[in-house]
Amino acid sequence: MHDNNLIDSHQDSAPWWRDAVIYQVYIRSFADGNGDGMGDIDGIRSKLPYLRDLGVDAIWINPWYPSPQADAGYDVADFRDIEPRFGTLDDADQLIAEAHEHGIRVIPDLVPNHTSDQHEWFQAALAAGPGSPERARYIFRPGRGPDGSEPPNNWNSCFGGPAWTRVSEPDGSPGEWYLHLFAPQQPDLNWAHREVREEFEAILRFWFDRGIDGFRIDVAHGLIKDTDLPDVVAPQGSGYVYPAGQHPHWDRDEVHEIYRRWRRIADEYPGHRKFVAEAWADTPQRLANYVRADGLHTAFNFDFLQATWKAERLREVIDTTTSSLNAVSAPATWVLSNHDVPRHATRYGRPPVDWVPGQNYRADGETDLELGTRRARAAALLMLSLPGGAYIYQGEELGLPEVENLPEELLQDPVWERSGHTERGRDGCRVPIPWSGEKPPFGFSPANATADPWLPQPDSWEDLTAEVQTGDPGSMLELYRSALRLRREHPALGEGDLAWNDAGEGVLSFTRTPGFACVVNLSGKAQRLPEHDRVLLTSGELDDEMLPPDTAVWLSL
Ligand code: ISL
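A: This is the predicted complex of the input protein with 6-O-alpha-D-glucopyranosyl-D-fructose.
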């Protein structure tokens, strides 16, 4: 078993994951080592010093397994290997070792809800025909209607269109249908099947044995389906909410049995391995079920990500998050952006509307990017001073906006095709990172690259490269670096409690002990700072003792 270094030497200290800052590496777009226009493991290795200097505790890497990339790697063909475009298993081993030497933990992404249609299990299921043990690992059913030409039920794919695709049987006749809650190239596994469970337990061990520090669990709320496969009674968006645990395919109570077993496996390994659930639940209490002491350790806090830039809304989310998680003794996580949502510098520059998953992937409306960026700076100080852990999506530390004008012919997200070209999809937040230089590929690919970046970078990103921001005290990058440094040093930050202060309408003000306060001004007019000893950090210039609108400050008391 992997033993190293800095990371393992801390194995007996407090569980690191309770207040870790985890940086999301969207591997396709982070750094391209081999010059093929797509990011890779060598690219990540070359940026480890950058990540160490930024001051993050861990990286979560989006799926890096062999995949036809029908959904940017979330269609996994082999869970025990590395996509050749990204490198090899040896490269992964080396990355894990080097990251640990830099004090950075490594968290790959596990995709248990579905496989690629190119996975050997699915290919065997197609070849074996109806009623076979091979088909039992997936969800195959005969169609409805006299000739079976209608899908088995009315479920829809998250990417648009029906969640069922009909196959041709080995003899060429029109045959059964299989379920795919996402793209047709992502058939859902049958988690009622013992072999599926055993396979994933073995996959967990395969990677834990290689020294990884945890997993992000994709669609953690979706694995269990009602075995009767009943129609969904009300379409999404109609306002109807199923009684807790009774939706036919989301957030069913039986899913937690799976995670109880996984937790026991993680706990067998030294050094605090951890899970983070990508789970969508109707209420904070339902979400808290995923992070009970015998379940997954943490879950992304999408309520925070979805909240509009309004003090009352944010305070409500902060309070419901902390109270629901305190009830199960789990730490909160805070997240502003990821590879599925429009970047928050853009979101915050729009009229306030709550972002709805799956509905408005498209970034509608006029954007005031200067305003959005000012708010994004304030939001960073808010997020990084709240109790618990936080996620940073690559590029947010550079203040990258959503790229809203990618040419249609270059769009790659399956959402674009599946929605009949009504939703542009998520490519606008996935554009490769600008590292240096004055024109594309901005150091993303090496000088001798053989291809352009897989999505084009705007020329205007010349002003947003890591290189130009380094050392500029007014830059987003230096704000993140300072905030992360202070967060490490200050005893009040990380896990713990907060106490709200009575501040004016539209102002978030809280104290953390010992001796720390954060004030965020969302009120539209300048606010007097509360009594303090010293200003530690501000997201924008103070006007004497006044905090301007859309600005946050950290104070020493
Ligand atoms: O289920 C949803 C809403 O209830 C969706 O928001 C869903 O959880 C989300 O789209 C899942 O995303 C993850 O799995 C997808 C992949 O395309 C995304 O990139 C990934 O983050 C399929 O694997």
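Residues 497-556 form a domain with the Immunoglobulin-like fold (CATH 2.60.40.1180). The first helix runs from residue 5 to 8.
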